[in-house]
């Protein structure tokens, strides 16, 4: 009897203890759009954070694709049940920034965690993209990438091109692509994912030409598009001409062209640095290089801009949750975590310290492709043309671009017509979106 | 003329239809009224500011050339899907009737595709006809066709029509088989004795007697082409290239959920509701008159 009573007492105490600790733990939900290996990284990070302390518990929830996650978050906010943290893709940045009452700036949250927020620790090119015009950092950069050039070394060899020197300018890319096609080394010379992100938004930044007024939207929401300027027209007319005989092959609006490159159909390929994993996995004999630029553009190459996603925090939550979010973001900013995240996933590191440490470890000697996007983004201080593109309705403007460019590639209109139409339709859509 | 059931109890009949009414109220009238309300608001995605604008959203939508294009796309798409799906199904059903041995096996095989989810059906077709890796795309190129549905709007349309029809053929097939079996063999035999050939027998006896089935399927297929093909279009073309395969339903989705213009999207869905109600009413009012129920 005595032992039984003792056991019961212990059990009761245990229950009490565990229930009190359960009360003390603040749960913080994190909605994200990461699949496959990247999903594992999210779960791993949450687990490590939860084990590192006992006050907060990060609960990651997969919500589908990027647009689906954004929609789920918006719907939840309207129903007054928002998650604490939501991952939003680059093109959704303007949407989130436009909703000032719905979000809480990350800069404010980080300082709530008891530590002063020091912006200089973070990679300037990335932080600038996720900051308000006055410099307040609004969201926490989680997975950032930038477009680079990939090429198939076997095809280069067959075409008699220099395997160790990828083309640097667009002119050189076109020449190499023609040679690949005419020598029969591959059925197509060049393909690219994301014509919008790579060939208009990054093209503008990299060649230091304007995408739109108001610093491409970084300075304010009222933007007039400038992408029918001669530099863009020249670039797209060249693409359209190459598309006629199949030297350039169109793959689709987002990442579909990767299949074409992986199938060995095209020799040269521009794609996000985040796409490296699939290319490594395919076992292809590949090489990488900087994103090509226009040889006659003054000041090119300037710097490229980030894509990927950042973490946003909703407004109107209890202070406890914000403290937890701050603790989690500080946890993510730690050098060992950032360095590992960068090396394992291929995302850009968020902090300078993580970059320095990775460099010191000799990682880039073995994986030069990982350093290209960082160098592209850090080479020069960003100009008003190269801080990034931010529109309240960037996904919609990208759709318009895609539609007009598809008509151009199908031979229904010239590059000038396609870009004039894009600008006219895009400007109208922007004015409607900002409520004019 | 139709026999009326008279309930002695006054409440019971209402109780019996109550579950159906409740479902209709919750899943149809309530969302429909929400859509109607939203269609007169102009709102930011987060609902932080909202303005009542009466019919401005409708005016905007109806004057948008892209919307008119979308109506045209939907008309072409729906007519093609209904024609291809019903024509093929009828042909297959008549053929399957003629098979003497293992008729059941043929029928089962024909019904199979109906179990495939729209998005998966779309993916299957997308892979088969993918310009770079699709096996059937190789065949088309071998035939000398410059197959590129990524840029060629007509080919993209043909692809989504084929995928959408393929999925609906099984359903139509099932109904046509049932319809064919209901036709008395004596009629056909009598015609055969009178010297009517196979073609003649089909067009003068079988086809008119199938009219109720055909009419029913016409309504079902139109509604299917309007609404249920979203998954296929989403998976295969995403409304592209250009706006060549952007149907009305796809545009509602794109404007509402991708571009987050809720007012426009709601106005479009209200218009869509009106179109489908009108279409069904017309079908019942005019086409049904010509249908002869045996």
From TrEMBL, chain A:
<comment type="subunit">
    <text>The complex is composed of two ATP-binding proteins (UgpC), two transmembrane proteins (UgpA and UgpE) and a solute-binding protein (UgpB).</text>
</comment>
<keyword id="KW-0574">Periplasm</keyword>
<dbReference type="InterPro" id="IPR006059">
    <property type="entry name" value="SBP"/>
</dbReference>
<dbReference type="InterPro" id="IPR050490">
    <property type="entry name" value="Bact_solute-bd_prot1"/>
</dbReference>
<dbReference type="Pfam" id="PF13416">
    <property type="entry name" value="SBP_bac_8"/>
</dbReference>
<dbReference type="GO" id="GO:0042597">
    <property type="term" value="C:periplasmic space"/>
</dbReference>
<keyword id="KW-0813">Transport</keyword>
<comment type="function">
    <text>Part of the ABC transporter complex UgpBAEC involved in sn-glycerol-3-phosphate (G3P) import. Binds G3P.</text>
</comment>
<feature type="signal peptide">
    <location>
        <begin position="1"/>
        <end position="24"/>
    </location>
</feature>
<protein>
    <recommendedName>
        <fullName>sn-glycerol-3-phosphate-binding periplasmic protein UgpB</fullName>
    </recommendedName>
</protein>
<comment type="similarity">
    <text>Belongs to the bacterial solute-binding protein 1 family.</text>
</comment>
<keyword id="KW-0732">Signal</keyword>
From TrEMBL, chain B:
<feature type="transmembrane region" description="Helical">
    <location>
        <begin position="266"/>
        <end position="287"/>
    </location>
</feature>
<dbReference type="InterPro" id="IPR000515">
    <property type="entry name" value="MetI-like"/>
</dbReference>
<comment type="similarity">
    <text>Belongs to the binding-protein-dependent transport system permease family.</text>
</comment>
<keyword id="KW-0997">Cell inner membrane</keyword>
<keyword id="KW-0472">Membrane</keyword>
<dbReference type="Pfam" id="PF00528">
    <property type="entry name" value="BPD_transp_1"/>
</dbReference>
<feature type="transmembrane region" description="Helical">
    <location>
        <begin position="12"/>
        <end position="32"/>
    </location>
</feature>
<keyword id="KW-0813">Transport</keyword>
<protein>
    <recommendedName>
        <fullName>sn-glycerol-3-phosphate transport system permease protein UgpA</fullName>
    </recommendedName>
</protein>
<feature type="transmembrane region" description="Helical">
    <location>
        <begin position="71"/>
        <end position="96"/>
    </location>
</feature>
<keyword id="KW-1003">Cell membrane</keyword>
<keyword id="KW-1133">Transmembrane helix</keyword>
<feature type="transmembrane region" description="Helical">
    <location>
        <begin position="108"/>
        <end position="128"/>
    </location>
</feature>
<dbReference type="InterPro" id="IPR050809">
    <property type="entry name" value="UgpAE/MalFG_permease"/>
</dbReference>
<feature type="domain" description="ABC transmembrane type-1">
    <location>
        <begin position="71"/>
        <end position="283"/>
    </location>
</feature>
<feature type="transmembrane region" description="Helical">
    <location>
        <begin position="205"/>
        <end position="227"/>
    </location>
</feature>
<comment type="subunit">
    <text>The complex is composed of two ATP-binding proteins (UgpC), two transmembrane proteins (UgpA and UgpE) and a solute-binding protein (UgpB).</text>
</comment>
<dbReference type="InterPro" id="IPR035906">
    <property type="entry name" value="MetI-like_sf"/>
</dbReference>
<dbReference type="GO" id="GO:0005886">
    <property type="term" value="C:plasma membrane"/>
</dbReference>
<dbReference type="GO" id="GO:0055085">
    <property type="term" value="P:transmembrane transport"/>
</dbReference>
<keyword id="KW-0812">Transmembrane</keyword>
<comment type="function">
    <text>Part of the ABC transporter complex UgpBAEC involved in sn-glycerol-3-phosphate (G3P) import. Probably responsible for the translocation of the substrate across the membrane.</text>
</comment>
């Amino acid at each position: 009897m005595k032992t039984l009573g003792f056991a019961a007492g212990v059990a009761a105490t245990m229950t009490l203890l565990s229930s009190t600790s359960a009360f003390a733990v603040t749960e913080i939900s994190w909605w994200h759009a990461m699949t496959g290996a990247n999903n594992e990284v999210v779960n791993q990070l949450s687990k490590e954070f939860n084990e590192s302390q006992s006050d907060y518990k990060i609960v990651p929830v997969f919500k589908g694709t990027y647009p689906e996650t954004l929609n789920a978050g918006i719907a939840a906010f309207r129903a007054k049940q928002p998650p604490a943290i939501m991952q939003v893709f680059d093109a959704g940045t303007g949407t989130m920034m436009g909703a000032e009452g719905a979000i809480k700036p990350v800069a404010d949250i980080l300082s709530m965690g008891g530590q002063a927020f020091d912006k200089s620790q973070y990679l300037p090119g990335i932080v600038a993209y996720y900051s308000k015009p006055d410099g307040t950092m609004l969201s926490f950069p989680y997975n950032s990438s930038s477009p680079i050039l990939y090429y198939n070394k076997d095809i280069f060899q067959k075409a008699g091109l220099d395997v160790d020197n990828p083309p640097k300018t667009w002119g050189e890319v076109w020449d190499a692509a023609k040679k690949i096609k005419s020598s029969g080394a591959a059925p197509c010379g060049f393909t690219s994912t994301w014509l919008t992100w790579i060939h208009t938004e990054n093209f503008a930044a990299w060649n230091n030409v304007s995408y739109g007024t108001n610093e491409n939207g970084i300075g304010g929401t009222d933007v007039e598009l400038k992408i029918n300027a001669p530099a863009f027209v020249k670039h797209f007319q060249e693409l359209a001409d190459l598309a006629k005989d199949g030297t350039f092959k169109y793959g689709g609006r987002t990442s579909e062209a990767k299949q074409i490159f992986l199938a060995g159909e095209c020799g040269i390929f521009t794609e996000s640095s985040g796409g490296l994993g699939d290319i490594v996995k395919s076992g292809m004999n590949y090489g990488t290089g900087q994103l090509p630029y226009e040889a006659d553009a003054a000041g090119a190459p300037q710097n490229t801009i980030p894509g990927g996603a950042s973490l946003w925090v909703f407004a109107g939550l209890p202070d406890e949750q914000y403290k937890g979010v701050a603790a989690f973001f500080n946890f993510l900013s730690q050098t060992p975590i950032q360095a590992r995240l960068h090396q394992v996933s291929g995302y850009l590191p968020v902090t300078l310290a993580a970059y320095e440490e990775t460099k010191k470890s000799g990682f880039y000697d073995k994986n030069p492709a990982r350093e290209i996007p960082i160098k592209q983004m850090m080479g020069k201080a960003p100009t008003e043309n190269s801080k990034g593109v931010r529109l309240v309705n960037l996904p919609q403007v990208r759709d318009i671009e895609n539609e007009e460019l598809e008509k151009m590639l199908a031979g229904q209109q010239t590059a000038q017509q396609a870009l004039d139409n894009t600008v006219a339709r895009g400007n109208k859509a922007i004015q409607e979106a900002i409520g004019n | 003329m139709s026999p009326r059931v008279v309930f002695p109890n006054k409440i019971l009949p209402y109780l019996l239809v109550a579950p159906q009414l409740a479902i209709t109220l919750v899943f149809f009238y309530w969302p429909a009224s929400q859509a109607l309300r939203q269609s007169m608001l102009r709102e930011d995605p987060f609902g932080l500011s909202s303005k009542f604008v009466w019919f401005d959203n409708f005016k905007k939508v109806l004057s948008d050339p892209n919307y008119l294009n979308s109506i045209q796309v939907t008309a072409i798409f729906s007519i093609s899907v209904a024609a291809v799906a019903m024509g093929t199904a009828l042909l297959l059903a008549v053929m399957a009737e003629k098979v003497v041995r293992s008729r059941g096996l043929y029928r089962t095989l024909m019904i199979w595709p109906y179990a495939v989810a729209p998005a998966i059906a779309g993916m299957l077709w997308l892979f088969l006809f993918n310009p770079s890796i699709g096996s059937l795309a190789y065949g088309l190129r071998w035939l000398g066709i410059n197959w590129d549905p990524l840029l060629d709007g007509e080919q993209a349309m043909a692809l989504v029509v084929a995928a959408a029809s393929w999925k609906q053929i099984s359903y139509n097939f099932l109904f046509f088989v049932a319809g064919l079996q209901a036709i008395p063999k004596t009629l056909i035999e009598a015609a055969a004795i009178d010297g009517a050939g196979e073609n003649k027998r089909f067009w003068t006896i079988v086809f008119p007697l199938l009219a109720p089935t055909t009419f029913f399927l016409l309504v079902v297929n139109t509604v299917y082409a309007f609404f249920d093909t979203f998954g296929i279009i989403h998976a295969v073309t995403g409304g592209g290239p250009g706006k060549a395969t952007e149907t009305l339903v796809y545009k509602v989705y794109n404007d509402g959920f991708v571009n987050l213009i809720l007012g426009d999207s709601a106005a479009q869905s209200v218009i869509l509701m009106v179109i489908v109600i009108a279409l069904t009413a017309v079908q019942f009012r005019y086409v049904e008159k010509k249908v002869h129920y045996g």
